Amino acid sequence: MLIREGFSEVEYLNPKIVASGESSAILSSDWKMNKAHGNISKELWVLQPDGTALLREDYFSAAS
Q1: In terms of Cα–Cα distance, which of 36, 13, 26 is closest to 57?
Q2: What is the pLDDT of residues 24-62, one digit of tens each?
Q3: Is the pLDDT confidence value at 4 over 90?
Q4: Separation between Cα atoms, residue 35 and residue 25, nearest integer Å
Q5: DSSP class per residue in the chain
Q6: What's the pLDDT score for residue 15?
Q7: CA distance 37 to 60
Q8: CATH of domain 11-63
Q9: Widest CA span of the chain, in angstroms?
Q10: Domain limits of the chain?
Q11: Is 0.70 surpassed by the pTM of this model?
């Protein structure tokens, strides 16, 4: 729905990444897009066996 409404080009501002165990990390950051902005209080990224990282949790606020 967001893409259909023209929201795009996410930019993380001043990201902070902290390791959380051997295969995960927690990211927090401010963010902005062409039509919104906000704060990410916690993104939990988990390393997969193939070397990619997948987002497991995402807590954020948004305003337009």
Answers
A1: 26
A2: 999 999 999 988 899 999 999 999 999 999 999 999 998
A3: no
A4: 28
A5: -TTTTT----EEEEEEEEE-SSSEEEEEEEEE-SS-EEEEEEEEEEE-TTS-EEEEEEEEEEE-
A6: 97
A7: 10
A8: 2.20.25
A9: 38
A10: 11-63
A11: yes
